[in-house]
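Page 47, continued from p. 46.
Same chain as before, 477 aa.
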Amino acid sequence: MNTNIVTSKIPDDLILSCLNTLSSIIWIIDAEGNYVYVNDSYLKVWGISREQALSYNVHNLPTECKPIIADIVLREKKSISMFQTVYDYRSDRKMRQFVTETPIFDAAGNIIYIIGKVDIISINDQKTTISLQNEYDPDAPSSEVTIIANSPAMRSIMETLHAISNVDSSVLITGESGTGKEVIAKELHRLSNRRDKPLIDINCAAIPENLLEAELFGYEQGSFTGANPKGKKGLIEEANGGILFLDEINSMPLSLQGKLLRAIESKSIRRVGGVENIKVDFRVVSATSKRLEKLCYQDLFRSDLYYRLNVIPINLPSLKERKEDIIPLANFFLDKYCVQYSKMMHFSNEAKEQLLNYDWPGNIRQLKNLVERTLVTCAEHTDCIQRINDAIFELKSEKTPEDFINKGRNEIDMMTEISSSGMGFSFDNFDLNKYLEDCEKTVIIRAMSECKTTYELAKKLNISQPSAVRRKQKYNL
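Result:
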């Protein structure tokens, strides 16, 4: 039941008086977008009279607002919280504000009013706190997915998403780790005609192989020891009518790939321990940071499944290939963490130049982490120039996973040369245990360069998966 319901046409005068005392910017519009109330803080910030304000409609303002959040509230019929960019033509001011707009319903369930408030505002990059709400959670799910697409490559991808949104063809999203594959999958779901049905996502690398089949396909009662006695729906069934997102699809065991292929082609599944086929209507979207063609060549991935998944390929560019998006992304994350940590900061031109000149091997995830680290370690009301410089210098000095892999390869090559020639070896201060540990470590590093999961690592080294995990932990790999 919706609790945002009013039974009277005009809000009580006492409520309006209370709203007028708040420092937050507050306004109320009707279902047609006409302003019916603004508080004193609204008038103060915008420098207009109450009569002027109440003569406006959200689509007819002396400002340019992107996006118009009231339109989203009317469409989604629920409260929306998001950042909004505002340009005031009269004063040539550009503003960035965090807005929450909430619908008010009548007894029949129709929206009759929308009440809005601004929690944080930034005027010409000089940020000022209006009101910070403790309940704001920047990581909470939102109906609006924020995608920065200033670069030609990302604009092309967004055009593709709109073009394929209302078809059922399989989509394969590829790209380096940290490029935002999951975000693209969520945006595709939001744009699609399946938006009112679930988006079920599963990380194939995060679930043990012996449990993955039961998670995907479900199981009947009594199928195995420890199973729910009532049986359980699988995630494919849960995705009925919606989208099934298979992240890290390259980690799916070969033993399951054939069953998944049959489910996609027949749009039906059979639970573990079951005898009946269950019809399921779902669209499959998968993602990987690995080259599936190469895995097919190595017989680690079924080529028929690859071609079935790769009907519509979307390859996400690395961050260094979309330089136009770096500063907008950095500002987006800065806004987000300013709200979360109740701080007011901005990037100077020098700091922005530093951000643009770095290659970002960790892509958007690395940029997000750097912005958060910079903000929480900077003093209040600074532009973070020195901290950005220090942070990027630290990043450039860090060893990447590729560095460790190359080091392992070089050590193995050296060991091979020594063992074959009998030269370059001395028993002075020799420690056999340490020598064997070093050998084991270099072999594991070399094997890890060719494996995505500990299951693949265990298979390659002919050891158990728990043993592979213990050895990784032993050497901090």
